[in-house]
Amino acid sequence: MDIGSTIRAIRKRKKITIAQICEETGLSQGFMSQVETNKTSPSIATLDHIATALKVPLTYLLMKKEERMSIVRKGDRKITTSGSESLKVEHLGSSKNMKLRLVEFPPGASTGEAPHAHPGEEVHFVVKGQIIAEQGEDSARLEEGDSFRWNACTPHRVVNISDELSIVLVAVYMEADSEQDEDFL
Q1: Strand partners, 167
Q2: Residue range 175-180: mean pLDDT, rounded
Q3: In this structure, which CATH number among 2.40.50.140, 1.10.260.40, 3.40.50.880, 3.40.640.10 belongs to the domain 3-67?
Q4: Where does the HTH cro/C1-type domain start and stop, copy by copy (predicted)?
Q5: For the whole model, what pTM was predicted?
């Protein structure tokens, strides 16, 4: 872990001196310098005092870089295709267990002729257009602004029933130990 560099970066960004941190925490400047250069590892109690002085949650100091906020700019999104109809899929973001995708369904397009299943759970939000969502014996017509969720291990299918492009925002949750299938639709 690189807690010291994180502390230094926050302190400098907030224009706080080591002396100010030491005054508030009761720590020596030499000790704070060693913390910031990762030459010593402070206790959780000491880190809590430092976090309070920096006005950040203790948990933020303990997070690895890959666990912190991640940004995907519109122009940097990965774009793939999915299914037999090559639906356009924009990858909006993901974490260890969750994926957020924007899927475009041309008029009449579907996720495939036959319903299919995969591990995980999905929540869908119809951004534009009209679709039919089918799962087992359940079928629903959904329009812009409607949403639904289902357990993806039960065969399911989505069809655009409008004469225009339909766009669906899809959040997929999978257990960390699941095989994460890119072609999840």
Answers
A1: 104, 128
A2: 63
A3: 1.10.260.40
A4: 7-61
A5: 0.76
